[in-house]
Amino acid sequence: MIRSILLALSAATAAGILFVNLYNSTVDAPNWGADIPNSLVAARHYFTVANPGNFFRVVSPLNQVLALIAVIACWKSGNARYIALGSLVLAVLADAFTFGYFYPRNEILFVAPIEAGVDTVRQAWQEWSTMNWLRSVLCAANTVLAFVILITTSKKSAQ
């Protein structure tokens, strides 16, 4: 019972990250780039209290911890162990991608003075917007694997 709850939490957390990431791509990013530099000034004002990073800084590590717990919980479950490992690897890879690729662009978009180079800001926004779809693919694969683990182990425990 506890294992099923933990696996369900892992799948739900992965799905939450996926859908917030998709929201960023379909709603936030187009607004950020709609009228650079004005649209980014508006976004910066909007994000003065909280921003998507506030969500991801809590939920991404939680996703990784739950994915690790899923690996431990499924260690003796044959193929489920490898699926859980895959889910964990994807969760860590998505976060590594965030730190290595997105943080530098977030700095350009939301922290550095815009007046220093509007072309640089436009390029950072375009790169961010394009590559966030790849990050969404990583998040989707993580979500699918987390749900596969949940379904597979639930079927086995029902037998």
Can you characterise this structure?
The protein is mainly α. The protein has one domain (2-158). It is 85% helix and 0% strand. The chain has five helices and no strands. It has helices spanning 2-32, 38-46, 52-73, 79-110, 118-158. Helix 1 runs antiparallel to helix 3, helix 1 runs antiparallel to helix 5 (118-158) and helix 3 (52-73) runs antiparallel to helix 4. The longest helix is centred in the C-terminal third of the chain and has 41 residues, at 118-158. It is elongated, with a radius of gyration of 18 Å. The mean pLDDT is 95. InterPro entries: Anthrone_oxy. The chain crosses the membrane at residues 55-75, 82-103, 133-153. It comes from Chryseolinea serpens. This is DUF1772 domain-containing protein. Keywords: Membrane, Transmembrane, Transmembrane helix.
What structural keywords apply?
single chain; 159 residues; mainly alpha; 5 helices; elongated
Structural class: mainly alpha
Uncertain spans, ≥5 residues at pLDDT below 50? none
User: What general form does the structure show?
Assistant: elongated
H-E string: HHHHH
**What is the beta-strand fraction?**
under 5%
Biggest beta sheet attributes:
none
Q: What multimeric state do the chains show?
A: single chain
Mean pLDDT: 95
Radius of gyration: 18 Å
Number of helices: 5
Give the helix proportion (percent range): over 70%
What is the domain total for the residues?
Answer: 1
Strand runs, count: 0
CA-CA gap between termini: 14 Å
InterPro entries: Anthrone_oxy (IPR013901)
Pfam family, one: Anthrone_oxy
Keywords: Membrane, Transmembrane, Transmembrane helix
Protein name: DUF1772 domain-containing protein
